[in-house]
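Discussion board: Methods & Data

I've been asked by a reviewer to show the raw model output for two of the constructs in my manuscript, not just the figures. I'm not sure how much to include, so I'm pasting the format here to get opinions. Each protein appears as its amino acid sequence followed by a line of discrete structure tokens. Is this the kind of thing reviewers expect to see in a supplement, or should I convert it first? Here is construct A:
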Amino acid sequence: MGLLKTIKQQILSSLSKKMKLALLICVLIPGCLGMSSIFVRIDGTLTCSTPFEYAVELVEDDPVENDKIDFTRFRRTKGTVEHYDVHGWCKEGEPLNNAVEPWIRIYHNCGTNSGCVCKKWENIYDDTEITVDIDLNGNISDVQCDLCASPDTIENIKYSWDNRHGKHGKWSFLRRK
């Protein structure tokens, strides 16, 4: 242990003050400029009075273009309660901002031919796990926001997502007949 300490001291003493400052800057700048990566998991249950179809999308809000982190394929439930789970690494590259702003959007056809609910969180600085249970039949005003697309049918949404992500690729939600 003493030999390692001696070698470290010799290396540091041989560096000029400018070199030490340059090393310090190289270490500190990425953290100061907001190049952070934070793990976010959002899970919970969706409840409807009848079986329904749904898809959940986890997105990180960015000023230029939102980052799609994870999403489920469209699923048809067998019952009236379904568990969902989306998760991934949110990366924030905005200067001087070490927080991420994740949000989820849930497309469904509970009681309608097209429904959308969403929820957004501000300024998440650490790895986070959040549980959100949503009753799609009841008062969903706490999960309404402007992030839902204009009203459309579930079939059109599925078809649109297939076209964007490929019918056979990892991101394909549903294979159209």
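Construct B, same format:
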Amino acid sequence: AEYMGGFNSVTSRMLAEGEYTSVGETSIPVSSPVEAVPAGAPVHIPVVCSVPCCSYRLVMNRLERRLFMYKSLFVFVLTFALVPLVRLKSDLPKLAFTIFLVVLHVFILVVYFYRVRVRQLDPNWRTVVARVIALILVIGLLVIAAQHEGGSLLELLLEMAGICLIHTVVLLLLMVRVVSPSSDALLSEA
């Protein structure tokens, strides 16, 4: 069977082997192979990571989880690559250091939002508001952590580890999808 549209190889393989088919905003197993998938049809890879939370489920599929791990590793490496630059901060012109940090953070924002489908993250306004409040709180923690200036190399490394942890939480808040109970009912009926 030939598939059209912008599917990646894993999605195409799973559809070709008849493991899953697209129904609305969910993927359900099928017993016979899928003949064709129209271009632009929503196709989702099955959820492999699901956590119940306040009658909702927080979900990430295998590809989203892998992308999250790559992004986290990237932010971790980039944060610790800054240690020598932060140690030399007093020797650098303040304007050059500030411009570098702004460019770096814009680049990190691009990494954060790479392949994130913002419209598919939340099923209703309540979860959108909860996610935004959580992001504001975590960014506030990040600002507080960034204001601390460690004296020794060990203090600086511990501070960078804390900043990496907070960045990982921000990344998680931007990538995890919230599934409403009504979507779970649709899945259980199919």
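Answer (T.O., handling editor elsewhere):
This is acceptable in a supplement if you add a one-line summary per construct. For B, something like: The first helix runs from residue 9 to 16.
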